[in-house]
């Protein structure tokens, strides 16, 4: 097994965890990172080549040409969004014989797009640890008063602070500025260009709380878990991507204490449109488990990219990713059925049902607006009567017997499911007059319609594509049932409708 991590700090943390977990087992664990000496690295490479090393943890070194695996069976990629297209191509070379598990809190648009399109399996862990609190996030203009207030608030409650300054050339100037601004703090610097042992010592001092303000670069983005650090100040937050901001914000709030994230920008009024969209999204989605939804925002801002290429393409905000997927799925179904996709009308026309009665789940019946919206969506997406029956059982079990408006809602969707299979565009069922409008070339025989009109005096043709029914029925349920009976009397629709 090989575990691939994007940073040395994260690789070291995984190595320690795995070593502790398998310490009593006859399992040999090795690490490939810049924290290891040349001798240790050579021994690990030799062990991988001859099969004596069972588990290897490493950084991008694992993807280099001099690494040879004798019996690699599983590749685990942590923080998958930190690896570029070329790294992914190197990983794909192993996929024919190796199982690959990728882990990330914020999948990149291309990866998320492939998962939502069914090209990759996807599972989401959305349950937060017990007593964990959401991180309060603020987007503010950078100022000395705000920085001092944020740092002192954390220090006075015995906590620690990350101050992220992602320019190594000027990080010492920032340190001097912070020393004058917050003389109460014990400040240290950490960035990727420091010698390995010096960086390791700084991080050990921070974990041991000998340092309470860590001035750092994005090296802390992954692999840092310090429970007492619960405030992070990010300078020039407008320069970071949405996934990166979420990862950086996740360095705090690792315990039961309330954590704070301050996203500092030079001037909130002069931000670019995309930077403003990113910061608005990260600020509005501060609840636990929001990484997946942030990734969806990122997907709509940047586009899903090419499935088989390197380019990032399009802006789906005009259409929305869900609608794009529906259009793509409809085109795939048409091609599989041997039909040419209708590019002018990529989605099948919806069937409109009007029973002239309230059709809804009342607030008094289901008080949670999010639960109601979810149920409405599931009803609208149902394509078979069996799905509606299952949903009715679930709703009745959760909330009790349906009120009259809820019964009308289910009658509406039952009629919609049946009418769609007959090529019906609209059903308008009033108390005295009902009409059924068909799409052009519906999947029913014209002779059946003629026979129906001849047998029933209260049914007549009103144009080439509409039936008019003069029948007085006071109850919406009776009207829905009558229209269903009329449609069933036309016989079974042809197989073409299934497409």
Descriptive overview:
With about 500 residues, the chain is α/β, with parallel strands linked by helices. The chain folds into 3 domains: about 1-105, P-loop containing nucleotide triphosphate hydrolases (Rossmann fold, 3-Layer(aba) Sandwich), CATH 3.40.50.300; about 135-290, Rossmann fold (3-Layer(aba) Sandwich), CATH 3.40.50.300; about 350-499, Aspartate Aminotransferase, domain 1, CATH 3.90.1150.50. The chain contains 16 helices and 16 strands. The chain has helices at about 10-20, 40-50, 85-90, 110-115, 145-155, 170-180, 195-205, 240-250, 275-285, 290-300, 320-335, 370-380, 385-400, 405-420, 445-455, 475-490; strands spanning about 1-5, 30, 55-60, 75-80, 100-105, 135-140, 160-165, 185-190, 215, 230-235, 260-265, 350-355, 425-430, 435-440, 460, 465-470. A 6-stranded parallel β-sheet has the order 6-11-10-7-9-8, with helices on both faces. It has a 5-stranded parallel β-sheet with strand order 2-3-1-4-5, with helices on both faces. Helix 4 crosses helix 10 and helix 14 (about 405-420) runs parallel beside helix 16. The longest helix has 18 residues, at about 405-420. The chain is elongated and about 95 Å long. It starts with a strand and ends in an 11-residue tail after the last helix. Residues about 495-499 have low confidence and may be disordered.
In CATH terms, what is the architecture of the largest domain?
3-Layer(aba) Sandwich
Q: At the fourth CATH level, what is the homologous superfamily of the largest domain? A: P-loop containing nucleotide triphosphate hydrolases
Low-confidence stretches: 495-499
| CATH topology descriptor of the largest domain | Rossmann fold
- Number of separate structural domains: 3
Question: What's the β-strand tally?
Answer: 16
Spatial strand sequence of the major β-sheet: 6-11-10-7-9-8
CA distance, first residue to last residue: 45 Å
The number of helices is 16
CATH top level label of the largest domain: Alpha Beta
Strand content: 15-25%
What fraction, in percent, of the residue positions are helical?
A: 25-40%
Mean of the pLDDT scores?
85
Largest sheet: 6 strands, parallel
Shape descriptor = elongated
**Structural class of the helix and strand makeup?**
alpha/beta
- CA radius of gyration: 30 Å
């Amino acid at each position: 097994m090989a575990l691939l991590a994007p940073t040395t700090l994260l690789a070291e943390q995984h190595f320690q965890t795995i070593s502790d977990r398998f310490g009593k087992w006859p399992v040999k664990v090795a690490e490939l990172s810049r924290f290891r000496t040349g001798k240790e690295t050579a021994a690990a490479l030799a062990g991988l080549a001859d099969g004596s090393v069972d588990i290897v943890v490493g950084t991008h070194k694992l993807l280099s040409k001099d690494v040879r695996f004798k019996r690699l069976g599983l590749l685990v990629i942590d923080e998958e969004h930190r690896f570029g297209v070329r790294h992914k191509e190197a990983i794909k070379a192993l996929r024919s014989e190796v199982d690959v598990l990728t882990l990330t809190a914020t999948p990149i648009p291309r990866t998320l797009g492939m998962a939502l399109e069914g090209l990759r399996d996807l599972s989401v862990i959305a349950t937060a640890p017990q007593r964990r609190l959401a991180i309060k996030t603020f987007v503010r203009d950078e100022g000395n008063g705000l920085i001092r207030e944020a740092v002192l608030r954390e220090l006075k409650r015995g906590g620690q602070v990350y101050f992220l300054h992602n320019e190594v050339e000027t990080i010492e100037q920032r340190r001097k500025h912070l020393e004058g601004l917050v003389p109460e703090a014990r400040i240290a610097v950490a960035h990727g260009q420091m010698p390995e042992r010096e960086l390791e010592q700084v991080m050990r001092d921070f974990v041991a709380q000998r340092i309470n303000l860590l001035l750092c670069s994005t090296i802390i983005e992954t692999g840092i878990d310090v429970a007492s650090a619960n405030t992070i100040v990010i300078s020039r937050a407008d320069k970071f991507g949405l996934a990166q901001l979420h990862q950086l914000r996740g360095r705090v709030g690792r315990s039961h204490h309330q954590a704070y994230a301050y996203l500092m920008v030079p001037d909130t009024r002069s931000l670019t449109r995309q930077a403003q969209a990113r910061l608005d999204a990260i600020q509005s989605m501060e609840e636990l488990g929001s990484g997946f939804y942030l990734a969806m925002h990122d997907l709509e801002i940047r586009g899903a990219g090419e499935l088989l290429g390197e380019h990032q393409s399009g802006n789906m905000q005009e259409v929305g990713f869900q609608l794009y997927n529906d259009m793509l799925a409809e085109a795939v179904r048409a091609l599989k059925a041997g039909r040419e996709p209708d590019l002018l009308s990529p989605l099948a026309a919806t069937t409109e049902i009007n029973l002239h009665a309230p059709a809804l789940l009342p607030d008094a019946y289901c008080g949670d607006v999010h639960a109601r919206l979810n149920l409405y969506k599931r009803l609208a997406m149902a394509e078979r009567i069996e799905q509606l029956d299952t949903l009715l059982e679930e709703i009745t079990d959760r909330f009790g017997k349906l009120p009259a408006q809820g019964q009308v809602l289910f009658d509406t969707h039952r009629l919609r499911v049946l009418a769609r299979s007959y090529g019906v565009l609209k059903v308008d069922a009033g108390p005295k007059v009902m009409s059924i409008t068909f799409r052009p070339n519906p999947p029913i025989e014209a002779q059946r319609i003629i026979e129906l009109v001849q047998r029933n005096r209260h049914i007549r043709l009103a144009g080439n594509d509409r039936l008019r029914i003069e029948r007085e029925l006071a109850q919406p349920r009776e009207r829905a049932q009558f229209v269903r009976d009329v449609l069933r009397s036309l016989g079974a629709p042809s197989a073409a409708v299934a497409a």
